[in-house]
Design brief:
Length: 336
Amino acid sequence: MIVTLRRSISVTLVLGAALALVMTASLCFGTIPIDPGEILRALVWNLTGRGESSIRDTIIISIRLPRVLLAALVGGALSVAGSIFQALLRNPLADPYILGVSSGSAVGAVLAMMLGLGAMSLGLPLASFAGALGTVLLVFNVGRMGRRVHTNTLLLAGVIINAFFGAVLMFLISISRHEALHTIVFWLMGDFSFADFAGVTLIFPYVVTGISLAYLLARRLNLLVAGEDEAIQLGVDVERVKKSAYVLGSLITAAAVSVCGLIGFVGLMIPHMVRLVLGPDHRLLIPASCLWGAAFLVICDTLARTILAPIELPVGVITSAFGAPFFIYLLKTRSI
């Protein structure tokens, strides 16, 4: 499909409107149902400070709004990271976790919980982010051969380090105290129950900057997917593009994982869905994946906290249960 500016703007506006609708609906659903009029009044009250607040206003502004915003940010981030890694590795099954970022982030988070830093408002996400960044540097240095970064070597280094940190993670869980075990297991399955505005503020600049820079790489990612030799002939510095794409995808993933734990399928499935519907051009694939992934994760989180209310499920359970059959349906009915 030919990507024109008019088509890009049209698709972005439609998906943006759908995301706004999904986020508004998510604010309405919960243990206490709230109608859209009360949502609007609470938002106006929060922005202007006029009028008296109610318990419902507090539920909307302090509990549901940061959770919805965080789910949208994480969904968009994981989806864009997935599209970057699939282009970088030229492998349609690549996702943000295959390069070991998730396991490194998980090790950092579990260490923080065992040391009691999880009780601090930013202790857990900062420890998780530090673990992810350390893993990024480790994988990059192991996978680099001289000055060149070979995608196959990078992939193999990520798989090996991912397996190593997986073993470290199991060791830490096996020696953790009983009272910390439930929190750790929930975090590993993906969890937004600790969402607050501090988490939103923490990852917002990383996610927005990362996605913006990824969009600037869109044309060069298209050429990289077509083949390294063809890209070099067209004047693309392939090694620089590969390094930039790897660092961008890893940082976006690290920011997302640091605030909510491990959430599978989003980075693998959403880029596939967008590519099947809108085509492989990254100038449209990246923004569409961001908006589509944000809406998808908001829907999954809404189901996670309402489907068995008052019991709350880890959102990773919903993404896996919802994503796997839909992905199989797309594979069976559409060609990749």
